[in-house]
Amino acid sequence: MILNVSDLKAAPVWLQVAAFFVGWLLVWLPIALPLAIALRWYPPQPVTPAQKLPLVASLYLLAPLPLWAALRLMEASLVDWGVVWSEEMGRSLLLGWGLGVGGLAVLLGGQWLLGWVEWSEVRPAIAQGVPLLLGTLLLAVWISLTEEVIFRGFLLNRLQRHELDWGAATIASLIFAVLHLVWEGKQNIPQLPGLWLMGMVLTVARWADAGLLGLPWGLHAGWVWAIASLDTLQLLKYTGKGSPWLVGFDHKPLAGVLGILCLLGTAGVVWWLR
Question: What value does the mean pLDDT take over residues 249-256?
Fold first, then answer.
């Protein structure tokens, strides 16, 4: 049985949400299957960084299609989802980016003082490092905007029609966390609590920004850019002196207590700034 537009409009919210993600997947499959074969990625095998970039890029390039369909179906606009191209949103974006990068700087700076991380002895040349930093910045801004429109825009708005604000935030953040398993499989399980909390912090950031996505977009982009830049340029390395429970299993900040505390601290600052 195939649902028509009127059926989907009247369908339960869980079915509308499922239709969005299934539709996005179906649009992506004709590209994803040959690309996965070419890259030799066979789920549930985790992706390598070299495999992940083209897969994520192809998926996110198609995101506007299901988002446009959802806007038409719900008779909504991007403004309803918190996207307002204005000077105010630009200021919130820059503020969020600064908070995201600054929070990670405090986290890693504290670990450096404790001797848990150290600067790499191999430093990239400026001619190599600057283009890489700019490239990762553009990717971080694009990926973060896409995810914020989907999870803190479309998904949160749909859930808030049927749940209290905190209930909707909890469910949206859980979906946000679980979908990250697609890329790294079981290796990402230790990060699930941190990813869920990250989703909650980004939701609080939207509420603090009067419903706009500028602040969560900036926070998200700052975190993605800082971590991707450090990994790409290999600027830091772990000494092994810090407990994995603190610094994060497999050196993933969201899989450790300090990363969780960093998120909680960021949430506190965001709530205060509101």
Answer: 88
